[in-house]
Amino acid sequence: MSAFTMPSLGADMDEGVLREWLVGPGDPVRRGDVVAIVETDKAAIEVECFESGTVGRLLVPPGTRVPVGTPLAEIEHGREPAGPARKDTLKPGTRARPAGPEPGKESAGRAANAVDSPARPAPEPSGEAACAGAGPLVRHLAQLRGVDLTALSGTGPGGRITRADVEHAPSPRAPRVRATPYARRLARDLGIDLTAVRGTGDGGAVRGVDVRTAAQGADVRAGAQADAAARPAEFRRESEQRTPPAAPAEEHPGRRTDTMRRAIAELMSRSKREIPHYYLATTIDLTAGQTWLRRINRGRPPADRLVPAALLMKAAALAAREVPALNGYWRDEGFVPGTEINVGVAVSLRQGGLLSPVIHRADTLAPETLMAHLKDLVERARRGRLRGSETTGATLTVTNLGEQGVESVFGVIHPPQVALVGFGAVVERPWARNGMLGVCPVVTVTLAADHRATDGAVGARYLTAVDRLLQRPEEL
Amino acid sequence: MSSTRTAHTPRPGSRVRRDAAHRLALLESMLRVRRFEERCVELYSAARIRGFMHLYIGEEAVAVGVNEALTGDDAVVSTYREHGHALARGVPAEAIMAEMFGKVTGCSRGRGGSMHLFDAGRRFYGGNAIVGGGLPLAAGLALADHMTGRNRVTCCFFGDGAFAEGEFHETANLAALWRLPLLLVCENNLYAMGTALERHQAQTDLALRAAGYGMVSWAVDGMDVLAVEDAARRAAEGVRAGAGPHFLEMRTYRFRAHSMYDADRYRDKAEIEHWKERDPVEGFARRLLEAKELTGKARDALEDRLAAGIDRAVEAAEQAPEEPVETLLEYVTSPVEANRS
Amino acid sequence: MKPLTDAEAASVVKESIAQIVPDADFTGVGPDDRFRDVLELDSLDFLSLVESLSERTGIRIDEEDYPELTTLADATRFLVGRSREATGTSPA
Amino acid sequence: MTATRTRTPAPAAAAEGRTTYRDAMREAMREAMRADERVFLMGEDVGRYGGCFGVSLGLLEEFGPERIRDAPLSESAFVGAGIGAALVGMRPIVEIMTVNFSLLALDQILNNAATLLHMSGGQLEVPIVIRMTTGAGRQLAAQHSHSLEGWYAHIPGLRVLAPATVADARYMLAPALADPDPVLIFEHGSLYNVSAELPAGPGFPGIERAVVRRPGTDVSVITYGGSLPKALAAADDLAEAGISAEVVDLRSLRPLDDATLGDSVARTHRAVVVDEGWRTGSLAAEISARLTEGHFYDLDAPVERVCSAEVPIPYARALEAAALPQADTIVAAARRAVGDPAPARADTADQRPTAGRPS
């Protein structure tokens, strides 16, 4: 048996509110299933479970705020998903906690009733103190493992954070997938997200054959996705099912906005405090892009059409391939290049606030695929249905404030990234070409970059690349 | 199948030159070993030499006397207490000292150290640091000569401790059985490291026991270089004559610790002092002085000459380059097969 | 298939917008306001709107038609006009 | 490439045109002694008795007692004597009855044969060949049945060979004698009666390389010596279940041919190492570690090992059989590796990689 714990969904997350259980005791779960909705300072996020088995007791009732790493539910393991949880709770081995409610009494609202321990109040924010209470070795280890020390409560003398605390802290990085080394290599080569691959090996391990199957199905799935988009009514029904009327987002809308505001404030302050930004801008003739889009979209049903944002995003990602110095992280007083080009898409939420879901390996995606990802992510971000893995790992962020009509946006870099690309509105402007003045659609693309990592010349090279790429949209 | 030959008992004293020059040469040879090792003690204490180092001091008459019976064609297989054997054999002091310094000019290129001195050109097949380990090897050298009909002697030194090893008994039997041209020289210094002979052998007359294998076996006063030379010559002559292996028990004594320093808890100081009265080097020098074959002045000149030679060896060893670490994996397999893992 | 009435078309437009912006407050959107700006619809939202309108009415909407969908009044008019064209001829 | 059916026939007397492993080894020695006067054979009962396993039968008559030298039961002495003789130019072949007895000569093999070249700073080469029988399967119990070749493969300065085929028995000796360094040849006792047609000399792959005895695509079964026939039999069974096993014969246990092993695993992504030695600290462990070091990102399953049970090899037939790697345990390991642990079932067949299935 293992515990499903409050995940860390970002480097700056130290606690979260369990908003909703999507499973109950006795439900079989597979690794990767979405089992709960967790509200962070930024968003309500669907969190997946990383074990296969049967849900045992739910340890935390909805609405409870708990620190990262707190066990939320038990996952019982067995080859076959076991019967109802009540059977399991009778096992002596699971009686570690004070007795819960009579198993037989559970009926409606069993999720809430099944919770053994009373909701724990959120601990006093002790981040700074905890941080101060960690030795250099522990700090180093935390950095290596990407563990946020402020999210830990120390178990050492005087609340000191020990090495073990860091080692036992859940890593905010992408969840560990049980996969063979060969499957990992293959997934990387084929551009397959391992977390999405169903493993058929021992203990659900993903093997080479699974990755190949997934790769073969990728095209099929992309098609299916388009299908789903073409049937919004059906999709809506599903989402209504999944989102009960008392959805967390609506439950405390004010507070959620407040907490997200706080998180954004913290992140942006840190950025402006730590990162010496420099800014560059250039205006690009988008005639070729527009023409190409019009041609592509003609005759396609709306669901299959591309918006200019998809094209711009692709150009931004490809340019990052040409200028890798802008794609990655500033860490430990040095630039760490990203191994992939994962583009964070700044998505503004209607109720206020900002989310940055990530399109992984955006440079490798065809515009159509990228468009499908974009639609899906933006839609789910706004419904508070992003998965944890979809909000992490960005190596470069693109903002598209132009959607709101502004012509240029000088953005604030999301640390630890080193650059942010902004696209303004596509507008018609007088434009001289070949000595002739005409009216062209143009877009202003801006770059905010970290001067510690690069100098202006690198940034200029990047914008030039974006321009050049957009002149040949058919090659994107 | 080797033919059965009648045992040959050589006449004592045959062909041994007894002139003064020869005796002075023996003294010089023994003194060189003694002074060389005394310098080793100094260098070891100064940490210039490391590892195990077993000194021969007190036993010099054996190496020097036996060597008189051997020609350049003969082979020597030795033990880890082999500075004396190597020097007597003619291995240059420079090469030995450099080896102990772990230098590239060492006689084993720094791979062996004090316990593993080799000089293939002089047919000196090494210091073997496994007690008794050199005996089968020596039998093999002798077997090769036997099979190819070369009239050469292989001389194998070993201690009384090796007499307890199966390898001695296996080799003695094999060599006697096959009539191998092997000269077995047991340096009985009365201690297998710290265990006295009577505490590790039921029958302490080693020559008597060796004779049980059908070998010609004698016990010899190992503190008297002339007696050693005489016995060795007679034995070697027998070996060359095809009489099979010969066994010499050299009764000797080491004056210093088993390896550099020990507390001598296993033997009395009085016993050591008693044996020192029979110091093979000083005793022999005294005899030559008394016989007027050596003068005080000549002795001083000899000492100066030896000291200068040792100085040169130390100086050369100091100056010699270290073997580069890049060569670490060399000499594990033959260079022609250098591409092996 | 019958052509849409003005009321039906207006209702379809509002429902489609509400689907995309669940808490859209139409009291703040006049019939001639550019609803894209008022309700802050980005290009993806707008595409979803087009999708929804097309789905609900069966009317084909091309990119060239997008400028017709700027205000609630425009959109209503567009849908009514297209539905009339469509009836009598083969549906799009 | 299609896998040929290479199940090794049951031990039988040499048929017409066929040679047994024993005869091949004898022929190799005869050829070597005819070609080079420096070569001689020494060991217990190699002469009049004709060799404990009959390998040297008849050689005494041809070469005489000087070159076919019966030694007393003194492993240390005659192995050491072989080393000494090799030091001065001879080319001795020393036969030790079994690997268990070789422990009595371990001092000579490790402390002298493997070490002299190095200790002497390159002055002394030791061109000796030491042959010995290894392995179990003949109900000889715990002091005649062990497979300790892995211990020797641990020792730098030695070359360790394990001829598993009649051709290797015939052709490995000459290059071993030509090698300036000590070479140990391990002859699995169960192989002496195996017979096969000898290929012509050319095409012999030397003593450096491992050889793919049967190509396959789904899993590499890596083995040597007496386990090779079992591995080939297992490959037959696996083929019937639709699993294509590649069988790799190490041939040289030291040095290991990492390239051939790696190439195979890079193709099949799965490895089963079959080693009659005990599992703990085994040669199989070494191979598994090397594959993991060098081919981690090729591996699609943990490396499986099929070794002897950790028990002194027992006498009773059933117990002995249970202690040793067998075709069925190899099959089971291969199935685990390809993720198809159950005996072939129609409903799981689709989950297997399709590449290696016969069409």
UniProtKB/TrEMBL annotation, chain A:
The keyword Methyltransferase does not apply. This is Dihydrolipoamide acetyltransferase component of pyruvate dehydrogenase complex. GO terms for molecular function: acetyltransferase activity; lipoic acid binding. Signal peptide: none annotated. Residues 216-232 have a biased composition (Low complexity). Residues 74-90 have a biased composition (Basic and acidic residues). Its EC number is 2.3.1.-. SUPFAM superfamilies: CoA-dependent acyltransferases, Peripheral subunit-binding domain of 2-oxo acid dehydrogenase complex, Single hybrid motif. Residues 73-131, 151-176, 216-257 are annotated as: Disordered. Belongs to the 2-oxoacid dehydrogenase family. Residues 133-170, 178-215 form the Peripheral subunit-binding (PSBD) domain. The keyword Isomerase does not apply. GO terms for cellular component: cytoplasm.
TrEMBL record, chain B:
CDD domains: TPP_E1_PDC_ADC_BCADC. Residues 29-325 form the Dehydrogenase E1 component domain. Coiled coil: none annotated. Its cofactor is thiamine diphosphate. GO terms for molecular function: magnesium ion binding; pyruvate dehydrogenase (acetyl-transferring) activity. GO terms for biological process: pyruvate decarboxylation to acetyl-CoA. Gene3D superfamilies: 3.40.50.970. This is Pyruvate dehydrogenase E1 component subunit alpha. The lineage of its organism: Bacteria, Bacillati, Actinomycetota, Actinomycetes, Kitasatosporales.
Automatic annotation (TrEMBL), chain C:
Transmembrane segments: none annotated. It comes from the Bacteria. Residues 4-83 form the Carrier domain. InterPro entries: ACP-like_sf, PP-bd_ACP. This is Carrier domain-containing protein.
From TrEMBL, chain D:
GO terms for molecular function: magnesium ion binding; oxidoreductase activity. Residues 19-194 form the Transketolase-like pyrimidine-binding domain. Gene3D superfamilies: 3.40.50.920, 3.40.50.970. Its cofactor is thiamine diphosphate. InterPro entries: THDP-binding, Transketo_C/PFOR_II, Transketolase-like_Pyr-bd, Transketolase_C. The keyword DNA repair does not apply. SMART domains: Transket_pyr. Residues 339-359 are annotated as: Disordered. This is TPP-dependent acetoin dehydrogenase complex, E1 protein subunit beta. The gene is acoB.
